[in-house]
Design brief:
Layout lengths: L6 E6 L12 H21 L4 H4 L10 H20 L5 H7 L17 H20 L18 H26 L3 E5 L9
Parallel strand pairs: 1-2
Helix pairs in contact: 1-5, 1-6, 3-5, 3-6
Length: 193
């Protein structure tokens, strides 16, 4: 399949506006960036059959489904850690397959595309947004068993994490043979008012 035969993807949007629910514009912008990254991932996987979602190329260990649940698990886990908020046990169980084992590997996992997208959206709507929307100080240091952290640091890490693994998902899609053409929006950035 040539590049011209590739499915055109969702345009990259950079006209981000802070989520209005957020007291802190910094938190609002970071969540808006996460929203954009996740919507781009959802477009990347929305048309894939189950066998593509479960495809693990020879010599590798991850599938698209495994990486997608890992991204949702990581977001919920980091937000929970930095805020001391406990996840609902049912959501924690749904996200458990996204946890890496002691060697850093993800367990084999399969889930349909609609449920994967729903799970990611659920984490954003039930964990990230409500837990962080009333936060004022993004730079308050939080002591953790592993390392001190701040909400700013965690949000920056999550933006990197979604970007990194979305690139892997794009590569796995291409290795399967389902081409995707990355596109830009009409404007690269927010138009001036």
């Amino acid at each position: 399949m040539s590049t011209s035969d590739a499915r055109p993807g969702r345009p990259r949007r950079y006209d981000l506006q802070p989520r209005p629910e957020c007291v802190s514009p910094e938190v609002g912008y970071a969540i808006a960036a996460l929203d954009e990254l996740s919507e781009r991932l959802f477009d990347l996987i929305a048309d894939l059959p189950q066998e593509t979602l479960d495809f693990v190329p020879p010599g590798t260990t991850n599938s698209i489904a495994m990486l997608t649940v890992h991204m949702a698990w990581a977001e919920a886990g980091w937000i929970s850690r930095v805020t001391g908020t406990r996840l609902p046990s049912e959501l924690e169980q749904l996200l458990a397959p996204g946890a890496q084992d002691a060697s850093g590997e993800l367990p084999p996992f399969s889930m349909g595309v609609e449920r994967l997208i729903e799970l990611c959206r659920r984490v954003r709507q039930e964990v990230t947004l409500p837990v962080l929307s009333s936060l004022h100080d993004v730079d308050a240091e939080v002591r953790d068993q592993r390392r001190p952290m701040t909400v700013r640091g965690v949000l920056t890490h999550l933006i990197w994490h979604w970007t990194y693994h979305s690139g892997q998902v794009g590569l796995l899609r291409r290795l399967w043979g389902a081409r995707y053409r990355w596109t830009f929006d009409a404007t690269l950035g927010a138009p001036r008012a």
